[in-house]
Amino acid sequence: PVPNYALEIEHEKLMHVIGVRDDLEEFFHIHPAPTETPGVFAVQHTFRAPGNYKVWSEIKQGGVIHAFSHTSFMVDGPRPLSSDKKINFSRTVAVGGYQVSVNFDEPVIAEHDHDLSFSILRPDGNPAQLDNYLGAKMHLAIIKDDWTQFLHTHPEDSSHHQATRPFEFLSRAWANGGGHGDEMDSPAISNQDAVNFHVNFPTPGLYRAFAQFRPADTGFYSSDDYLLAAFWIEVKDENQTTVKNGNETAGSRVLAGTWSGIWWVRLIISLIAIAILSLLVKRLIKVKV
Fold first, then answer.
1. pTM of the model
2. CA 52 – CA 62 distance, rounded (Å)
3. Beta bridge partners of 102
4. What is the pLDDT of residue 160?
């Protein structure tokens, strides 16, 4: 057993546990505490809905965060009529009277760095001020729909640049800022009001991003309470090549370095096309004469 004094506090807790149901519609972030038994942590938790769940736990030792994937388990209770995933790629959701938007450039390509920026508006439409939730303006958990990838990140101003160390098949996520996205799908908000993350998705597929935050001056949240905004993100394989309406879409980055992605080749093709067009125009003029 690892004694409690051998572990280090990370974001105000000795242990973080994040869990989801298999449809990614249920999410929780809780914090087991040490018991009288060395190496054993425990917490009381009430599941809001039945289903098949999986949890990941995180501890810190020697300055390194270790993330552990645990065996899934069933929570009994009346099952819903349909257990299909409700996938919606909307970039704006309403939660607790607040409007939360996520901005990022598309396509999202696996094994590439991506900036995710979150903006939060109050009911009156003004940017919301945030209190720290567990030592950060926001916690972001990103989980793949088949449970094979788990990322837990924090924004740059939390002063924790490396949020998660890999364990088994788990992957790393760095939260060192940046952030930009599609402003058409979100309310206008200044960069200083947005919460920015830097994420590298390890493999293609469907992911759900769970953004946890606590608005300031609400007066009724305990230290562990938060509001949750969840977003689906589709991550593409770099080898996919699709160009839609002249714009780059999933996988079209692979065209860089090929003939269509080299500017001087495009220039030569354009000059050849102009020369051919000039010859055709001269022939038409001769025919008319």
1. 0.72
2. 34
3. 118
4. 41
Q: Which residues contact 156 (CB under 8 A, 6 or more apart)?
A: 175, 176, 177, 196, 198
Q: Classify strands 92-95 and 73-75 as parallel, antiparallel or unpaired.
A: unpaired
Q: Is the confidence at residue 262, as pLDDT, over 70?
A: no
Condensed to tens digits (0 to 9), the pLDDT of residues 214-249 reads 998 776 567 778 999 999 999 999 886 454 444 444
Residue 277 near residue 270 (C-beta atoms within 8 A): no
Distance of CA 213 to the CA centre of its chain: 14
Residue type, 247: N
Q: Which amino acid is at 8?
A: E
Count Cβ atoms below 10 Å from residue 152 Cβ, excluding itself.
Answer: 23
Do residues 134 and 144 lie in contact, with contact meaning Cβ atoms separated by under 8 Å? no
Q: What is the DSSP letter of 10?
A: B
Q: How far is CA 233 from CA 146, 202, 209, in A?
A: 14, 13, 7
- Integer Cα distance of 227 and 183 in angstroms: 23
User: What gap in Å lies between CA 236 and CA 253, rounded to an integer?
Assistant: 11
What's the pLDDT score for residue 30?
A: 95
pLDDT in tens, 97-137: 999 999 999 999 999 999 999 999 999 999 999 988 888 89
Between CA 87 and CA 182 the distance in angstroms is 20
